[in-house]
């Protein structure tokens, strides 16, 4: 009796063969993203943003449905696309450019949606494959239980017996491997669903805060005057601390104020006071020359 069948190996996404261009993107992202995260943690958003944007892929490759290995590779690559665009979105948001950040958040939303749709369509077949594989192995072992027991209790097994015992052991091990592989692919499907929901909400939250600030500007006493709006907030003692008790949120809003009024030296000094980060001061406005009395 020969206990043999084909076993489709489960290959981690990081090890699946990728096109050279995808490999270059992945390698650079893994190598350089930690430095960007560090800059964001230190409130150095102006430095983090260009570094994050430099990590974005030159293009997003189509999700490859050709075979299971290609599908797994695309699943992994698309999750790296997600991280790259989300990192750029966070860095751009932190620098105060919420509108550009929204574009990146929307890109992550779209990429996550594709990944969820494709894995949801393709991976259940792999789940079924591995479950069927495990079941066939169990059935084969059960049908040959008496023979297997005889082999294992044989006092002096010959080389042929030993070979069969080795095949039996591999068959038993394959049940665990197949079961685990089915669980892994089920997990991938659930993961992409959750990611699609998360990135969709992230894009909506960014759009919502842009709308909220636009409304605040429109309702301000000096309607849509960004300079006076920024001055008014900074002149309100305790406003920032009361509205943004969390330091990260407070600094993020200050960078937004800097984006609204790039000429405000007061905003820059406040960011420096809050973070210790040195930013270039905008030039001082020259006072208009006084007219001589006649």
Word description of this protein:
By secondary structure, the chain is an all-alpha fold. The protein has 2 domains: 13-210; 220-275, no CATH class. The chain has 10 helices and no strands. It has helices at 20-41, 45-54, 68-94, 98-143, 145-153, 159-219, 226-235, 239-243, 247-260, 265-275. α3 (68-94) packs antiparallel against α4 (98-143) and α9 packs antiparallel against α10 (265-275). The longest helix is centred in the middle third of the chain and has 61 residues, at 159-219. The radius of gyration is 30 Å and the shape is elongated. The protein starts with 19 loop residues before the first helix and ends in a 19-residue tail after the last helix.
Helix and strand sequence: HHHHHHHHHH
Give the tally of structural domains: 2
Mean pLDDT reading: 88
What is the makeup of the main sheet? none
The total of beta strands comes to 0
> What would you call the structural class?
mainly alpha
Low-confidence stretches: 1-17, 288-294
Specify the helix fraction band.
Answer: over 70%
Shape: elongated
Please compute the radius of gyration using only Cα atoms: 30 Å
How do the helices and strands line up, and which of them pair or pack?
Elements (H helix, E strand, L loop, with lengths): L19 H22 L3 H10 L13 H27 L3 H46 L1 H9 L5 H61 L6 H10 L3 H5 L3 H14 L4 H11 L19
Give short descriptive properties of this protein.
2 domains; 10 helices; 0% strand; mainly alpha; 294 residues; single chain; elongated; disordered C terminus; disordered N terminus
